[in-house]
Amino acid sequence: MKITRHIALILGLLVVLVCSWIAPMDAPAMTQVDAGLKRALVSFASARALNGLLSVVQAAQVDIQPAGIGVTLSPGQLLAPVNELVKHFADLMLLACVAFGIQKVLISISGYWLISVALTVVALAWAASHLRQSHAPRWLSRALVLMLMLRFAIPVALLGTDALSQKFLAADYTAAQSAIDTTTAEAGKVKAPEPSASDDKSWLPKVPNWVPSLLEVKDRYTKMKQAVEQSTEHMVKLMVVFLLQTMLLPLLMLWALFGIARVSVEQPSLLPSNAG
Asked: Residue 152, by phi and psi: left (phi above 0), alpha (psi -120 to 50) or beta?
């Protein structure tokens, strides 16, 4: 019935106003954003460490002197393709850190007391108009939707995003981050051995010195390349996790909340008239 619907809308509005002032969702949302920022910083640090290590190894040169002729090799160039991916991964992790920082600022802005005051004024005006005329002017309903989004959309969307992330993405993050840390530790053990040089200028005496060393260098660099390539799948997983956490899921949540707010405020007749 109409009276039941009015009572339900007024009670719902009172709950909204109380929540606007006591802010029960702001602190949990801030906590979840801080946790996400820490995870992003850990991944960024791992990416930068791996990138720096690969860059140093990539730039290393090995000097050999077969038959007294100086030759300089750069076996680290084998790592150029995978190091490029690591650079992009590090850049994306930095963007994720920035996104979490922006989310913290938005939570603080949404909890500012002037927004709660404006929401209270608009909500009371909408309720009075709705009770007198059975519906509020469209501009007033839109203003209420806007204030509701400004006050609640960010913390609610972030809490919803965190709930989905914990359910579907947490395991992927843990496994991928652990794999990248392991890869970084293994890559750090790879060092280019210095091939020994002989004073003899003949070709044959030098072969036992520089050939085994060169083969060892190539083998070590190849193993490093393979180890990093095996972690590319985990890097992609982390990229997906943070893109979902910082962009796609929050945007979907905001879109859903906007739709709910519009239906509740601008088209209350679509809501059930009674609990039964």
From this structure: alpha
